[in-house]
Structure formats: C-alpha cells, structure tokens
Amino acid sequence: MDKELLEKCKQRLLEEKSKILERYFEKEETQQRLGEESKEPRDWEDIGQITYTEELLDSLSQVEMATLKEIDYALEKIDKGVYGICERCGEEIPEPRLCAIPWTRYCAQCAEEVEKESGTFMPYYGIDMYSPDNIQVEREDIGEA
Ligand SMILES: [Zn+2]
Prior knowledge:
Layout: H1 3-35, H2 44-49, H3 54-59, H4 62-80, H5 95-100, H6 108-118, H7 126-130, H8 132-144
Helix pairs in contact: 1-4
Zinc ion binds next to helix 6.
C-alpha cells in the first residue's frame, strides 16, 4: 500500500479519535483544574496510545464508542501492515473510500453485502459524516415544508 496514503489515513484516524475524545478530556481537565494544574495538550501519538477507562466509555454515546473501536482496530491494522485490505474479499480498498471512511474494513461492494447479511453494519454510518450529498437531502426536506 502507498506509504503516503497510509500516513494520510493514519492522521485522519487519529484526528477522528481525538475529536471524539475531546469532550471527555474537557470534562476531565475541568476536574483537574479544581485540584492541580492541567496537563499540556496531548499530541496525536499520545491519543493513539490511550486506553479507555470505564468512566470514559460511560460518557460516550454508542455511536462514538463504536467509532472508537473501529478506529483502534484500523490503527492496529496499520501497525500490523494489513491496513487497506478488504477483510471479506482480500482486495485493496480503493483510495477514495479509505479517505472517506478511514476505519472501514471492507471495500464498497463487500460493505454492502455485509450490511445486507447483518442488518446493522455500524462502520457504514461514516458516510453520513462526510458526504455532502446527505447534507443537501436534509436541506431539501426543510425547503419542502
Ligand atoms: Zn471486498
């Protein structure tokens, strides 16, 4: 797999992870300020190393938790050198798809199949977060009213 793309995807994964964790850290930092000095801002490598406490998991929504799991799983695959390979058909996942959903486990076709088979396929919701088309649909709905 292309090294530049791999770095790009890794960056995106850590970015998404830090976005989700931000809320929790704001809360924790507030608590810390009451007692001791707050810590320096964490860098992305630190964020990649974070282990989750029960308290953290309690404060996240199910979607956030599922995303974190997928992100960690993807980061693990990067470490093992198997990132970007569809887990179902073994083909390389095309770059545009990886850029849109960097934690995806499958190519677009397999993701569809898996979704059909399982009924609920969580990693697929990532599309809603990045596709401008979906935003347009919402706006149309508002316009019709
Ligand atoms: Zn596939």
